[in-house]
Amino acid sequence: MKSLKSTILMMALLTVNGCAFIGGFFDGDDCKGQDCDTPELLTSPTTKREWYCYGKEDRSGWQCENASDSSRIAAVNPRAISQEPVQEGTPSEKPALVSNKPEESLPTSTGIESILQYPADAYAVQLLALQNEEGVIQYAQQYGITDPLYTRINSQGSEWYVLLLGIYPDRPTAATAKDNWEKNKTLTTRAWIRKLGPLQTAVRAAQG
Length: 208
Hints:
Elements: H1 2-14, H2 22-25, E1 31-32, H3 40-43, E2 52-55, E3 62-65, H4 112-116, E4 123-130, H5 133-142, E5 149-155, E6 158-168, H6 171-182, E7 192-195, H7 196-207
Parallel strand pairs: 1-3
Antiparallel strand pairs: 2-3, 4-6, 4-7, 5-6
C-alpha cells in the first residue's frame, strides 16, 4: 500500500508542466490569472496545472501565468558579428626610382643651326678645339656642361670640333661670361674670345 501511494505521488509530480513546483520557483506576487487567487495553488506541491513563466524585463524574477502569451515569445537571433570587410590586397605601385647618377652620355647635337643663325658681328667664347668629337664631349662632361654647344669646322684643310661656352652680342658681355667660367676652376686650356663671322665661315666649309 505504501508503495502504491509513492507511485501515485511520483506520477503527480511528473505531470507538472512549466517552470517547476509553484512554491519552489516563484511566490504569489509573480502569479497572474484567475486561478492565482486560490492560496492552495501556491503552497500545494501536488497541484497539477500547466504554467507559463516569463522573465521580467528588469530581470528581478519570473512572471508566471496559467495561459500562454504569444506576444512574449520572440525568436532569439544570435548577435551578428560585425566584421571589417576584407579588402583584397592590391599590389602597391612601386615608386619611381629617382637616380642622382649623372648621365653617362651627353647630348651630341653640334648646334650648327644655332651658330649660323646669329649675326656675324657677334662674339663667341671658345673653350676647346679638338680633332675628335669624343674628346670634346668628355671635356664638357668633366666640367658639368649638360648641353654642350659644339660644332665641326674646317680650318686650313683640317677638320676640328670646337666647343663653345656661348654666343654674345658684344665683346664686353663675352668677356664677363669668360671670367665667370674661369672662376674657381682648374682648367687645362684657357678660353678665348673670337669673332663669330670667321667661325661661321669655317662651319660652312666643313659642310662642303
